[in-house]
Amino acid sequence: MRNGNEETLDPDDWEATRALAHRIVDEAVDYLARVRERPVWAPMPEEVRASFQTSLPEGPTPLATVYRNYRETVAAYPMGNIHPRFWGWYMGASNFTGALGDFLAAVEGSNLGGGTTGATQVEQQVIEWLKEIVGFPKSASGTLTSGGSMANLVAHTVIRNLAAGYDVRGEGIAGVEKPLRFYASDQVHSCHQKALETLGLGAKALVEIASDDRQRMRLDALQAAIAADRASGLQPACVIGTAGTTNTGAIDDLSAIADLCEREGLWFHVDGCIGGVLRLAPDHAHLVNGIERAGSVAIDPHKWLHAPFEAGSVLIKDAQAHFDTFEMHGPYLQLQERGMAAGKFLADYGLELTRGFRALKIWMAFKEQGAAKFGRLITRDIALARYMAAQVEAHPLLELFAPVDLNIVCFRHVAADEDAAKFLNTEIMLRLQERGLAVISDTTVQGRHGLRCAFNNHRTRRADIDGLLADVLCIAEEIKTEHASQRAHLADGPAP
């Protein structure tokens, strides 16, 4: 035991810590290998929830006890997105190599703000690989972020500063003569509105354009909105094309949007957080034709590349504009020609000076698996969605309520009317979740409410889909039987 003057956070007994660490890894491997044996999700009992309300611990607790507490109160109640029957939101299912990468990154402890280190080289190589995937030139720049929300915010900051036509960093947005306008489908992710609000442009800066019957942005409506805004003294700045909407997986016509942006002199940004890596899958790469013509693209490696959370990225063709938007160095962080502070500083391409080593988990998984395998997994997810759609269409009690163009299936159990459909399908979803059978979500598309499955899980098999649909039908019958019994009970009640 060290005295007070020699204390560190290192273990007193490295060998005992080594043994516990080996046990933790062994149990983590078991956790993944036996993932199918567990419920997808489980409600947390109140006594477990109460255990998180204790006050700050003053004294020490043995690490083995802390780990046991984690297993009993945290690991026992996960979100479940690594489970093969988790399809509720667009999450990604992680991978063990990526988890090892996160562990190694944490042990190394590097801050990726910048500096001449192996870690910064890894991040720059990952950015190069992502540029290669979307077809961007080597002269483009990019940065890793926490996720799509931050990636899109970084891109919109660059776009705002360029479109303003003056020194926004120095003068602020009050000098904008004509209010800027960003255009996107009415299916666009909510993070874009949040980004424009954060940038001081306001929610009105995002103009949502009507989508067609396949939830793709209507180009005629876009052209009309741009013309109307110009006539009203507003300044169109950017069109946001979506490569895979969150609600249904719809992909805007990126090539047509690129043509329009060239004619109108607008920046073309692609939210590719879902479909930005589709070019890895040769059979489906054509779905994102035109993405290479964008000025910027947001991609989430923690989705279809299955990196453990969190891992987002943004790529920007105009590297100088990207740098000019964020570069800043205080007197405590001056760049040098040699030494630790030489070379490119990664913090000059985003909002964060303190940056975790999130690149390592992506780098290791790519090196281990190869890009072609990720492409095959993307292809399989799309095939699973189409398989499910065919099963739904073939069953008289099930129906699709949105087209299946990518890997998201919106379906529901039929009911007498829209109100009955909303009640029945919502209850089906909740019972599936509460019983640990599957995690799916619900959504509304063009006024119709139902269930939604997003296939973004490298562990899913066809048998999982068959099981889900059987469970949906069984629970629906159960709910209908309960209601029939309640009606009968009311009808047989005591006479007045």
Present the secondary structure layout:
Elements: H1 14-33, H2 46-50, H3 63-73, H4 96-108, H5 118-134, E1 141-145, H6 148-164, H7 168-171, E2 180-185, H8 191-198, E3 206-209, H9 219-231, E4 235-242, H10 254-264, E5 267-271, E6 296-299, E7 312-316, H11 319-326, H12 359-369, H13 371-394, E8 398-400, E9 408-413, H14 418-434, E10 441-445, E11 448-454, H15 462-491
Explain this structure.
The protein is an alpha/beta fold and 496 residues long. The chain folds into two domains: 110-369, Aspartate Aminotransferase, domain 2; 372-491, Aspartate Aminotransferase, domain 1. The chain is built from 15 helices and eleven strands. The strands form two sheets. A seven-stranded mixed β-sheet has the order 1-7-6-5-4-2-3, sandwiched between helices. The chain has a four-stranded antiparallel β-sheet with strand order 8-9-11-10. Strand 2, helix 8 (191-198) and strand 3 form a beta-alpha-beta unit. Helix 4 packs across helix 12 and helix 6 packs across helix 11 (319-326). The termini are far apart. 42% of the residues are buried. The mean pLDDT is 95.
